[in-house]
């Protein structure tokens, strides 16, 4: 599929979702490379779509710089959501500032407080949300459908970037001079919190740069799209 065809298809899906849900549709963007393409398409073709992201308090400086770049480039005031101060303070007091390295349980607690709860709050009044998920990102994403019911939040979930491959994303970014996180140029594939993200080496799975001290493959899904994990774990939510 050509880049133009991919872009047209994504825009058509975004427009259809926006026509149906209006301001009850939101794009919680993790600010990855596919997110930059989708933001570019939204700003140029469906500017009414609400875009949000989460500031966990532990993001790399490069990500803050990117948020500012997006504002300058598109006049885009991304809705930046923060975790509850009291919840962060209590967690840090009880478990330590770098609790996530100590145990899986602590890492999940930190992601819960800093990501999942703020996202849950942001989605509470929504009918539908948009993701930047692509089929080629992981084997367990091969079965993703363009529109899905999200059993955790009880919302519709739109996946307009499904058919884009990694190479398509970067072609679009280069051809359209789209801003992106400069850490990608330092071999960071998937960028989250600074303390939980590292560069990868040639041939490594892109998700190997996240929570690398944990061994189980499934754990590397606890980024913006943890629906299935949370459902499996018996929680009632989803997260960024
Ligand atoms: S990625 Fe790391 S620092 Fe960020 S919320 Fe999860 S455990 Fe906490």
Quick structural gist:
This protein has helices at about 5-20, 35-45, 60-75, 85-95, 105-125, 165-175, 225-230; strands at about 25-30, 50-55, 80, 130, 145-150, 155-160. The protein has about 240 residues and is of the alpha/beta class.
Please give a structural write-up.
- This protein has 240 residues and is of the alpha/beta class.
- The chain has a single domain, classed as HUPs (Rossmann fold, 3-Layer(aba) Sandwich).
- It contains seven helices and six strands, in the order αβαβαβααβββαα.
- Strands 3-2-1-4-6-5 form a six-stranded mixed β-sheet, sandwiched between helices.
- α2 crosses α6 and α4 runs antiparallel to α5.
- It is globular and about 50 Å long.
- The chain binds iron/sulfur cluster.
- The site of iron/sulfur cluster has 12 residues, from α5.
Chain-wise SSE layout:
Elements (H helix, E strand, L loop, with lengths): L2 H19 L3 E4 L4 H13 L4 E5 L6 H14 L4 E3 L3 H11 L8 H20 L4 E3 L16 E4 L4 E4 L7 H10 L51 H6 L8
Parallel strand pairs: 1-2, 1-4, 2-3, 4-6
Antiparallel strand pairs: 5-6
Helix pairs in contact: 1-2, 2-6, 4-5
Bound molecules: iron/sulfur cluster.
């Amino acid at each position: 599929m050509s880049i133009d065809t991919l872009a047209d298809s994504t825009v058509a899906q975004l427009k259809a979702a926006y026509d149906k849900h209006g301001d009850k549709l939101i794009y919680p963007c993790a600010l990855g490379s596919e997110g930059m393409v989708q933001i570019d398409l939204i700003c140029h073709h469906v500017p009414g779509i609400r875009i949000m992201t989460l500031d966990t308090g532990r993001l790399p400086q490069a990500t803050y710089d990117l948020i500012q770049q997006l504002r300058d480039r598109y006049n885009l005031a991304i809705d930046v959501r923060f975790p509850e101060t009291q919840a962060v303070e209590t967690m840090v007091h009880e478990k330590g500032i770098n609790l996530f390295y100590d145990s899986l349980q602590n890492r999940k607690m930190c992601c819960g407080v800093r990501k999942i709860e703020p996202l849950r709050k942001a989605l509470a009044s929504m009918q539908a949300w948009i993701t930047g998920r692509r089929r080629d990102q992981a084997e367990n994403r091969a079965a993703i459908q363009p529109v899905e019911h999200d059993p955790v939040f009880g919302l519709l979930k739109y996946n307009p970037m499904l058919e884009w491959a990694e190479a398509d994303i970067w072609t679009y970014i280069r051809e359209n001079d789209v801003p992106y996180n400069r850490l990608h140029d330092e071999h960071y594939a998937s960028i989250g919190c600074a303390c939980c993200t590292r560069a990868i080496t040639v041939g490594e799975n892109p998700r190997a740069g996240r929570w690398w001290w944990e061994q189980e493959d499934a754990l590397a899904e606890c980024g913006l799209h943890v629906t299935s994990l949370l459902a499996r774990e018996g929680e009632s939510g989803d997260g960024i």
